[in-house]
Amino acid sequence: MGKEQLKPPYFARLLNGHILNHVFHSLLFLVGLSLGIIFSLLYLNAFSFNSQASILSPLLPPSPSHLMHNMDDDELLWRASMVPRVVKCPYKRLPKVAFMFLTRGPLPLGPLWEKFFKGNEGLYSIYVHMHPSFNLTIHEDSVFYMRRIRSKIVEWGKPNMGDAEKRLLSNALLDFCNERFVLLSESCIPLFNFTTIYNYLINSKESFIESFDDPSGNGRGRYNKKMLPAISVSDWRKGSQWIEVNRKHAIEIISDNKYYELFQKHCIQHNCMDEHYIPTLANMLFATQISNRTITWADWSRRGKHRPAELEGASISIEFINHIRYGKNCTYNGENTTICYLFARKFMPDTLQPLLQLRPPLLEL
Ligand SMILES: *[C@@H]1O[C@H](CO)[C@@H](O)[C@H](O)[C@H]1NC(C)=O
Ligand SMILES: *[C@@H]1O[C@H](CO)[C@@H](O)[C@H](O)[C@H]1NC(C)=O
Ligand SMILES: *[C@@H]1O[C@H](CO)[C@@H](O)[C@H](O)[C@H]1NC(C)=O
Ligand SMILES: *[C@@H]1O[C@H](CO)[C@@H](O)[C@H](O)[C@H]1NC(C)=O
Ligand SMILES: *[C@@H]1O[C@H](CO)[C@@H](O)[C@H](O)[C@H]1NC(C)=O
């Protein structure tokens, strides 16, 4: 019985029958629909500037495909400060960490960072703020290729440092996948592999902002009474410039103009903006949500110096690195941990080779 049904005449009959006719029409409809979708996608794609991802795959939120926009700072801050009010996110998004490099010139430790990022595509984005007149050729294969943002001149210790930090945060906020934002300099190194650092940051309940009251001349001494009544000396805090924040706090920082204007006007002493603005702002706006410690290590052991030590190639050894990695106890999400630092500075260019040659390798952990 089964055999008979498979004979060709059966199919010939079917071909003229209603069933196949129906199937045929359905197929035709589906082909037409697909073509329509494909053409509209192609059409839309050709005219979209920065939302390719969202059109090609509804699973991904729109990520800016290039960083060279024409927005001035005001427009950039305004766009970056927008927050979706619908709580449920329609995209399946993998949260990314934004690595924001605030540098004077090139990145002498670039090869180390290339190794660090390798194999972790999709979990990070890089932003580089560099002196605008610096001409740098970056190879297409580099993770830093096309990651330079529109930058302006920065004088270390001067108020325009705050502008550069806000510019970096704003560019990084334009990518909705970025969940954590870490500020780094050209002398910074990672202390652990990408996976360890990524998990530490993504799972943290706090932003890593150091913020403490320093009664000395380099702390409260930099406070200016003209900031009253908005900022009193009891609000005043000091802390490392090298911060790491979550998305919510990044938006708070770039959206603040009230306190920022007071800092620009009245905080003109050296290092006033970079060491006090964010620690004070965080203390005033979200004090209970920060770690009060920095995750970027520096060598302050030389007494009486206002700057951390600059580390040379000769000082690099695995013992030294492990001392930085595990030499302190602190808390993480309310638990004790020996991993307090994820990054370290100030590593001079001649530390690159010793760092790459460490055994066991620096980035194995
Ligand atoms: C970069 O290149 C431009 C034009 O090619 C030149 O005017 C400028 O001086 C260069 N800057 C540096 C720092 O070399
Ligand atoms: C940081 O200090 C504030 C008080 O200034 C406190 O509320 C907060 O709990 C501290 N954060 C941690 C992680 O201890
Ligand atoms: C950190 O805590 C552990 C266990 O509580 C202790 O053995 C170690 O000495 C501490 N390390 C430092 C640097 O205080
Ligand atoms: C964490 O360390 C402190 C001392 O630094 C200790 O008093 C406390 O009991 C520890 N907490 C846990 C959960 O081990
Ligand atoms: C990164 O470090 C963790 C923790 O030490 C380790 O388990 C993991 O295998 C390392 N990953 C890579 C890719 O080296």
UniProtKB/TrEMBL annotation:
GO cellular component, one term: membrane
Taxonomic superkingdom: Eukaryota
A Pfam match: Branch
TM annotation in the entry: 23-44
Species whose genome carries this gene: Dillenia turbinata
InterPro entries: BC10-like (IPR044174), Glyco_trans_14 (IPR003406)
Coarse class of the protein's main subcellular location: membrane
Compartment annotation: Membrane
Membrane topology: Single-pass type II membrane protein
Keyword Oxidoreductase on entry: no
UniProt keyword Transmembrane present: yes
Protein name: Glycosyl transferase, family 14
